[in-house]
Design a protein that fits this description.
Elements lengths: L4 E5 L3 H13 L3 E5 L2 H10 L4 E5 L7 H9 L6 E5 L4 H9 L4 E4 L4 H17 L11 E3 L2 E4 L4 E4 L2 E2 L4 H11 L8 H9 L7 H15 L10 E4 L3 E4 L2
Parallel strand pairs: 1-2, 1-3, 3-4, 4-5
Antiparallel strand pairs: 6-7, 7-8, 8-9, 10-11
GO molecular function, one term: transcription cis-regulatory region binding
Keywords: DNA-binding, Phosphoprotein, Transcription, Transcription regulation, Two-component regulatory system
InterPro entries: CheY-like_superfamily (IPR011006), OmpR/PhoB-type_DNA-bd (IPR001867), Sig_transdc_resp-reg_receiver (IPR001789), WalR-like (IPR039420), WH-like_DNA-bd_sf (IPR036388)
């Protein structure tokens, strides 16, 4: 069985060591780096399954590292930061993170979040036994096995969570999904009231990437007071 590798990028050695200690107890292989440039270099020599990134790192911050990772890799990214306001968290999710943990943090909670992200990521890995056809609607083409999306022939770069939301809605056209249902199916965790903002932010950025800020014929339709539906 393949050993899962996790990148820990944090310029505070005591924090990186603490995370490594708890993740290695779970059987994960950890790769520690102290700045953004080292984080990007780690992807050139390692097969990484999940990244834990501090936002305020030397050389390149977590936002820029995430942007460059997303250009070539599809994997869960968790921001770990002392920036703890709701606006900070929303900014992190908009910049491409799949989850956001604030410092100081409970190491066991972080491990639980890592496990949840990996379960979700592995669930959507292509299988040699599957032969799922592409989903098409209004110029949008989704390839579930390859986890790729094209709009009028142009590739659309989505984060893993954005892709999972789009696929969930597209596989059930006209069905209305509430924020609670979307969160529990995509994040694989129990829903609580604050998670509605997380879903809303991901829907907003997904719509923007699909050009729906200027397109009146929305593929993702809001059913006010209920949730969202795929209008394909």
């Amino acid at each position: 069985m393949k050993t899962i590798s996790i990148l820990i990028a944090d310029d505070e050695p005591e924090i990186a060591d603490l995370i490594e200690l708890h993740l290695e107890k779970e059987g994960y292989r950890c790769i520690k780096v102290a700045d953004g440039q080292e984080a990007l270099l780690a992807f050139q020599t390692n097969s990484i399954d999940l990244a834990i990134l501090d936002i305020m790192m030397p050389k390149l911050d977590g936002y820029e590292v995430t942007r460059r990772i997303r250009e070539q890799h599809h994997l869960p990214i968790i921001f770990l930061s002392a920036k703890a306001t709701d606006l900070d968290k929303i900014a992190g999710l908009v910049r491409g993170a799949d989850d956001y943990v604030t410092k100081p943090f409970n190491p066991m909670e972080l491990v639980a979040r890592v496990n949840a992200q990996l379960r979700r990521s592995m669930q959507f890995q292509p299988s040699a036994q599957t032969n799922k056809l592409a989903l098409e609607a209004g110029g949008l083409v989704i390839y579930p096995e390859e986890r790729t999306v094209f709009l009028y022939g142009d590739p659309i770069e989505l984060t893993p969570k954005e892709f999972d939301i789009l696929l969930l809605l597209a596989e059930h056209p006209k069905k209305v999904f509430g924020s609670e249902n979307i969160f529990e199916q995509v994040w694989g965790e129990a829903y609580y009231e604050g998670n509605s903002n997380t879903v809303m932010v991901h829907i907003r950025t997904l719509r923007k990437k699909l050009g729906e800020d200027v397109n009146k014929n929305k593929l993702i339709k809001t059913v006010w007071g209920v949730g969202y539906t795929f209008n394909g």
